[in-house]
Design brief:
Blueprint: E1 15-20, H1 27-37, H2 48-55, H3 65-68, E2 70-75, H4 78-83, H5 85-101, E3 105-109
Helix pairs in contact: 2-5
Length: 127
């Protein structure tokens, strides 16, 4: 997971990766975006189990994340959540479990107005 931080700063000093789901409307699109934005390895199977495995494997985190921690900010998720609520529920569960299991990993659902977006609602937490 050596993706780009997209100019998002974490006050806690963690390394930040942005998972941008803007335009994603199905599971295949979500998996493709995870592979791209989180720089997942070629063996990533683009399924729920493989996503959970990758998120909970510190060996795949960007350099320095072991010491500083890793924050994954999920942006642009609302359209996907509305179009595929059952799939989104599974994705949220995986994000929440990864936060619980991954050492130093925190996944947050970015909202407008926070972490580089534009509105005034606080971020949601997966799970």
């Amino acid at each position: 997971m050596a993706g780009q931080a997209h100019d998002v700063h974490d006050p806690a000093g963690r390394i930040v990766l942005v998972l941008d789901l803007d335009g994603v409307t199905d599971k295949a699109g979500l998996m493709d975006r995870c592979a791209r934005d989180l720089a997942l390895p070629d063996w990533f199977g683009r399924n729920w189990d493989a996503l959970a495995d990758c998120l909970s494997d510190p060996a795949l985190y960007p350099e320095g994340a072991g010491e500083r921690g890793l924050l994954v900010v999920v942006r642009g998720w609302r359209t996907y959540a509305e179009k595929r609520p059952e799939e989104w529920q599974v994705a949220e569960e995986i994000f929440a479990e990864a936060t619980d299991r991954g050492p130093g990993l925190f996944v947050t659902l970015g909202q407008p107005g926070r972490l580089g977006e534009s509105s005034e609602t606080p971020p949601d937490q997966p799970g």
